[in-house]
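The freezer alarm interrupted the setup, so I double-checked each line after restarting. Inputs confirmed:
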Amino acid sequence: MTTPTSASELLKRLADAMRPQVTAATVLVGIHTGGVWIAERLHQMLRLEARMGSIDVSYHRDDHHLGGGKSGGRASQLPFDVEGAHVVIVDDVLATGRTIRAAMNELFDYGRPARIDLAVLIDRGGRELPIAATWCGETVRLPASQTLELARNDKGELDFRVIEK
Amino acid sequence: MSARNPQLNANGELIHLITLEGLPREIIIGILDRAAPFTEIAEREVKKVPLLRGKSVFNLFFENSTRTRTTFEIAAKRLSADVINLNINTSSTTKGETLLDTVDNLAAMQADMFVVRHASSGAPYLIAQHLAATGREHIHVVNAGDGRHAHPTQGLLDMYTVRHYKRDFTRLTVAVVGDVLHSRVARSQLHALATLGVPEIRVVGPKTLLPTGVEQMVNHDRLRVCHDLRDGLKGADVVMMLRLQNERMNGALLPSPQEYFKSYGLTPAMLALAKPDAIVMHPGPMNRGVEIDSAVADGRQAVILPQVTFGIAVRMAVMSMLAGN
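Predicted 3D structure, all chains:
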């Protein structure tokens, strides 16, 4: 496969795509851990006023009985009223869609949002659920044997790594 | 079950919780870490997470305890499990046979987890052993208190409480005060405190209510026995009171509850000997005016009600960890 475009370039693209459609009341919710890093950046770039949130999907994973989510969960932080909100779920990589399904379930445990959108840096394909991103930095096709992982270095710079399983 | 710890599977993961004795530090810390985010679930619109959805948890209480049973029930329900409560009065003559027969019957009803309270030490272990011997290791057993042996979830929620208020176990002086002889809670506390590296542990009580060889009970070189409450409390960071177990006392171990209160009751004057920021814990139910003065039980240093709240999160952590392994 080709090396993905740099994360900072993808972030810029994603912010440009989102800008016309978000309002001051839009709330970003990042999925732990990569999604939170991206949501923090987008929050600055889009100059959003509402406080952002973070979601941990461990409690809603569908592979708990298979030993998934061994580390247990972190608490989700949603410092706003989910009821009636326009929520944008933010994640680094969209693949099977199972994480997004879990994130939506988690969100609904706090209230009924008016609308949920999905923003991801990269859509790598391999969907197992009928889920699509509203905004996406780039679409790539990766073989199932490879995992795409977002990493953050000491300087806070984000970059993708391809990991062979 | 061979030489390996019967609570762990071949990968060293927790499959039953029977006792804190010999439980690796990483597993205890893992449970405490996992419990922390569960404390927040009660504040959500939906006070449930689906980690045990579709699982059946059987509360097998061969000994009455409304409080412990209720906290296990709430914990299982917040994890979305189906909970079946059984209060079974034991007939002493047929106890052994009845116990395993009961287990076999409930296992045939597709139980996924047994929460067991029994007056006989070792009953939960017997059940776990029986399940393993009959190829049903996928059914998990949680000890909710067996005889004088262990009450591991109480020990864990006590450790959670200590960590919540004191952060670091390795610079604490902890006093465990009262009827240690009859207390499974004390045994679980002492094992956990030693494993978590508490440097000074004091066991405080009258000679008649401390088991012989208490110093050798846990693997710890700085476990001190004090028969004078003043010595035991001096400079302590944490005071863990135990309930005087009247119902378990056969024979005259004590002159009277009033006499006991005079020497071992935790009054404000006694508590003043501990550090000014010392916390006071009690596993409940309290005997006010016997082991603890109401002024202390309701005072600003008491963390007895937070213990109850943390207990639900800790039991959720244990059950979700077992179900995932």
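Quick read of the result. The radius of gyration of chain B is 19 Å.
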